[in-house]
Structures are given as structure tokens and as C-alpha cells.
Amino acid sequence: MSSGVDVSALVRTRARYPQAIAEAAARRPRRPLLGHTGRLMIVAADHPARGSLGAGGAPFAMANRADLLERLCLALSRPGVDGVLASADVLDDLLLLGALDGKVVMGSMNRGGLAGAAFELDDRFTGYRPEDIERLGFDAGKLLLRVDYDDPGSLSTLHSAARVVDAMAERGLPVFVEPFLTRRGPGGTGPPRNDLSAEAVTRSIAIASGLAGTSAYTWLKVPVTENPDDMARVMETSTLPAVLLGGDVGGDAKDADAAYEKWRGALQLPTVQGLVVGRALLYPPDGDVAGAVDTAVGLL
Questions:
Q1: Furthest-apart CA atoms within the chain: distance in Å
Q2: Counting CB atoms within 10 angstroms of each CB, which of 52, 241, 252, 259 has the fewest?
Q3: How far apart are CA 256 and CA 144, in angstroms?
Q4: pLDDT tens readout for residues 58-70
Q5: Residue 203: enclosing H or E segment and its boundaries?
């Protein structure tokens, strides 16, 4: 995709007038989290901050920032798209581009578990703090909660996540918790893999729902289980509102179609209020970002 984003203008503003970002945030027109449809369609682009740059089989698809910004601006312009989830560098660019007016803005909070690192499961809060989200007038935060029963460090992850949920609730700000039970290979080696069995997703939802001193402002961001037919039973675990996580669907159009069908069924469940999808929409197999976004919106 050829970029229409003027990188030189963005860099010039950042270098000479950095306060323009805060000023853009202060004048940004806001909206309720849920619009008239009562459903949420959020485009996610917080992957690069964790060193995860691949999409659709291309290992550095998300490394071209101008291209990513153009794809995001196109996605945000489509009818039915409510907002975006991203890290500060991306949201700052979008603020300067005027792409966040009247949109739901979700700040990504913990990006410390870098993809492929020995400390990948140490998901420390290196992104937005609750006070940042409040100061900038953003609408929600999101945190990743990966728990490995064989890793004692997961207790620290749980503790820090709980305190952030508390801090967000004190400010009346929604926080979207993305829980997984995660395992490494034999002997605790190899890359961590999220367990998407019905049993594991059920436990992860139960754990995430019980974090902190209140769940009043907690939402869940959950994957579709390996067997989509299990989702109805799995989602009975909690009464918290939830959105579906849509990950990378690979470079095959058939895989994309299969993902849409999984989402379609799960979206009918009573606690599921919408979709948060990133790479599958921004880097679709056929390259048609608008078409992929419109298809996802149609599922709602």
C-alpha cells in the first residue's frame, strides 16, 4: 500500500513542537464507549511495541510505520469502526493526523513481554499508565494477562495486573483484560504458546474476572476456542462484558474466511459485545483493508 501519510510533517512537528500531541488530545471530540448499536468494533495496532512485527506471513509487515498509519486511517474511516487500540507512539501519530476525533481510544498498557525473549511472560507495564490515559482523555486501557502455571513469575504478573485494574476503576476508566493460560515446551523451554482449549480459556476467564477490588470497569478480551462450538459453554464463566480477540489469520484467504465464521458464531453469545481485531483487518490476504474491515463490521 503506497502511503499518503506525510512522515516529514509528522517528524517536523514532533521535533519542533512536541506539545502538539497533548494539545491534539485536549481538543479531541469524545464519544461514549458504546454507541447507539451497543456493540464495539476496535482495530488493534499495539503489536510493534512488543517487537511483534509480522502479519499475513510477512515477518516485518508492521515495520513500515507510514504504511501502518495509512492502513489505520483507512480502517478508522470505515462506517461502523468505533476506535483503535495502540501504544503511545502510534496513538500520538494518529492524534497529529486528526484520525481519533470522535473515536474510542484504548491505550495499550503492558508491552514488556517482548516476543521471543526469555522474559516474554514477564508482561510488565511499560506502556500507558492509568494516569496517562486519564490525562490524555482516552477512553479505556488494555492489558495482557498470560499465566503459566509452571512459572512462579506469573504471580507477579497477576499482582501487577490486579493493581492496574484497581487504579483504572478508581478513575472510572474501563480496562480490557486479555487473559491466557500459556505454556512453554518440555522443561520450560521453547516459545510460550497460548492454550486455546475450552478448559484453559474457561480458567483464564475465571482468573481475569476475579482480579482487583472491583470488576465494575473490567471488560474481557477473549480468543475464540480451538473448537468454536465450545464458546457458548466457556463464556458462561463470567458476566463481565467481553470482546473477541481476532489475531493474525495468515496469508490464505480461506483462513480469513474461517476466522470470520468463528467470530460470527461467538458474537451471538450474550456477554460478547464486539470485536478487537488487528492484523487480520490491517493486512488481509487480498490486501483490501476496507473490504476486510467492512466484512468484520457486518458480523456485528
A1: 55
A2: 252
A3: 24
A4: 999 999 999 999 9
A5: helix 198-209
Does pLDDT of 247 surpass 70?
Answer: no
On the 0-12 / 13-18 / 19+ scale of CB atoms within 10 A, 290 is middle
pLDDT mean over 6-16: 97
d(CA 162, CA 160): 5
Q: d(Cα 205, Cα 187) in Å, to the nearest integer?
A: 26
Rounded to an integer, the average pLDDT of 210-223 is 98
Dihedral sign from CA coordinates of 277, 282, 288, 289:
positive
> In whole angstroms, what is the distance from residue 55 CA to residue 270 CA?
31
- C-alpha separations of 199 from 53, 186, 202, 229 in Å: 30, 20, 5, 13
Q: Which residue has the cell 480468543?
A: 223
Average pLDDT, the chain: 93
Q: Pull the grid cell for residue 71.
A: 492502513
Say what the pLDDT of residue 254 is.
Answer: 75
CA-CA distance, 31 to 42, in Å (whole number)?
A: 14
Provide Rg for the chain, Cα atoms.
Answer: 18
pLDDT over 60 (residue 33): yes
